[in-house]
Amino acid sequence: MLTQERQSLIENYVNQHEVCRVSELCDLTDTSESTIRRDLIQMEKNGMLKRVHGGAQSVKNFSRDVSQNVRFNLNHDVKIAIAKYAARNFVQPGDNVFIDAGTTTYELVPFLADIPKVRIITNGVETALCSLNHGIKTILIGGEVKDDTHAVIGQTALAQIRGVNFSVSFVGANGIEKNGNLTTPDPEEAAIKAAEIKQARHAYVLADSSKIGERNFAVFANTKDVYVVTDQLKTSQKAALPADINLEEAK
């Protein structure tokens, strides 16, 4: 298969599936992993797709949420490192901890199980189940459940969140812009995230470095209002962030 033909096949597949893994593209094209990785580097330079850890993401539908089962597999090791760092540094015994319905925030739960008398409040269905499985006292916010992200949203959920206070909130983000705007595709999820931040004594946005420079439809906060916890950044990645950002890099 010629390079141009293979890359066209890859582009169409990525656009159709929105996010895919290198192994899928190897099977699709009957090509080695090293060849696919070279293709992805070249295709990203040509604006055909965006490389993510372990795969590629379409640039055609940036404003849509990626399905939950796919997002759990993206940058998984990095998400665990960020969550572990956040749990060990920012949660105290007896805290009421709000955990947003995100795949990085979800990874907090096992690390909170060893902290005495922690209570988890969440709008994430998977997060609530995981918390219960770890023996943690859990409150699941009620309301409408989104099909793609399994996040609870809507006015009922907002009213419940606004009626309580949290020691700390951990919030996910789909994008961090140079001006500090924190974004997500869905305005209803953005409203929930904004409320989570407002009701918390301390608020932390957990986002791996692939979110830097990404821009989505709905803005829910600015980096000046929160601490951002991410992985170890390159100089170029730091340059894409606001100069006055409250930044924590997971070690």
Please describe what this structure looks like.
- With 251 residues, this protein is α/β, with parallel strands linked by helices.
- It is 39% helix and 23% strand.
- It contains eleven helices and 15 strands.
- The protein has helices spanning 3-17, 22-29, 33-45, 68-71, 76-90, 103-106, 109-112, 125-133, 155-162, 187-198, 235-239; strands at residues 19-21, 50-52, 55-57, 96-99, 119-122, 137-140, 144-145, 152-153, 166-172, 175-176, 181-184, 200-206, 218-222, 227-230, 247-249.
- Helix 9 (155-162) runs parallel beside helix 10 (187-198).
- The longest helix has 15 residues, at 3-17.
- The protein is elongated and about 60 Å long.
Please estimate the helix content. Answer: 25-40%
Indicate the overall shape.
elongated
What fraction of the residues are assigned to beta strands by DSSP? 15-25%
What's the arrangement of strands in the largest beta sheet?
6-5-4-9-12-14-15
Question: Which labels suit this protein?
Answer:
251 residues, alpha/beta, seven-stranded parallel beta sheet, three-stranded antiparallel beta sheet, 11 helices
Protein topology:
Layout: H1 3-17, E1 19-21, H2 22-29, H3 33-45, E2 50-52, E3 55-57, H4 68-71, H5 76-90, E4 96-99, H6 103-106, H7 109-112, E5 119-122, H8 125-133, E6 137-140, E7 144-145, E8 152-153, H9 155-162, E9 166-172, E10 175-176, E11 181-184, H10 187-198, E12 200-206, E13 218-222, E14 227-230, H11 235-239, E15 247-249
Parallel strand pairs: 4-5, 4-9, 5-6, 9-12, 12-14, 14-15
Antiparallel strand pairs: 1-3, 2-3, 7-8, 10-11, 11-13
Helix pairs in contact: 9-10
